[in-house]
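Please check this one:

***
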Amino acid sequence: MRVLVCAATAWELSAWGEPEPSTSLVVSGVGSPATFAAFPTRPNVDLIINIGIAGAYIGSGLAIGDIVLGESEVWGDIGFALPEAPHFRPIQQSEFGAFYSEPLPLWIPTGFSGARGRGCTVHTCTGTDSQGEQRRGLFQADFETMEGAALAQLGKQWAIPVCEVRAISNFAAQRDMRPEHLSLSKERLAMFLRTQRAEKALHSR
């Protein structure tokens, strides 16, 4: 099986370790525009694995250092700012929203029994508790990323399964990015990936 493993930064991608001969590693860049630019054409692979860190929404049940696999991704901040409450109307609720109306599906290995949830991809990270609550409520999302929906959208377009593996490094409002949280999340991510690779779980479809 030909596998492409990608992450927004080289720091996150290093959690994968040394690639197998059938595996390609790509640093896609931070944010969806960089991700789309990194993949101008369809890669000749059977599976895309998107790895990295993420912020958890309060109420998701996720904690610092937890590993979560994405079941789906949504676009979380495309829409209309409003002068009064609720201050934001997602494009999914408008006459222009058909393209964004359904969550983008992701692939999860058969038999995986760990945490799974919905990712919410944004261009600007959540900055307040109220914004985090709003995004979780609007999209029933569990964690926040800046690239997940872009990879999921490309996978759907190319008919290539996409597996998203994230380690929680902060909560998507407080953004407490202390070094020990980052180190823990990367360590847990690397440990999970080593185990899954040893069991061939991420290479079987």
The beta strands are 3-7, 23-27, 47-56, 67-75, 79-81, 88-90, 104-105, 115-121, 143-145, 162-171.
